[in-house]
Amino acid sequence: MAHLPILFVQFCQRIGKRREYALPFPLAARVLFLLAALAAAGCGYHVENGNPALAPGKVLAVESFQNQTSYYKIDQIFTRAMVNELVRATDYRIAADGSRADAVLQSSIKRLSAQPVTYSKSSFASTFMVTVNAGVTVTDKSTGEVLYQNQNLVFSEQYVINTDVENFFSEMNPALSRLANDFSSSVVASILEVY
Prior knowledge:
By secondary structure, the chain is an alpha/beta fold.
């Protein structure tokens, strides 16, 4: 490393004496382009938030999911997953009460179905596909403007059940928890994409 400055000085002296040691134009252009690209990378370019109600640090009220199915406590599973994902992935302050919120997230679970996918040797279903149809709306609390809306969300998850009657354990709830996490992650990513 100590020889590097000496070599650089010798190289510069040679360029002065002989023109053929100069860097070829394409390489020089590449170096200049790389330097310009590096300089531009730090310019602070970012996408401006389209609505101040969803700016980082604002309060987003997450209402409990409306359960339009007959499945018990599915609304609690999905509400918990949505709140956890919003806390993990955003800078919003999350509230259950919409009175002091800047925006309100309302969701509903419209349909839940579990269909057999595979059968065991004894003709019992051993793998099921659980599918949830849901809708989500985010509204600006002060203006009533709809900031995000998708009423046709469909998510599916497979789960296997133990066909042994003595050791039976339903995998439906763990499958719904995984499904709720995937659902929440996708919805939050979609909201962040827009804002």
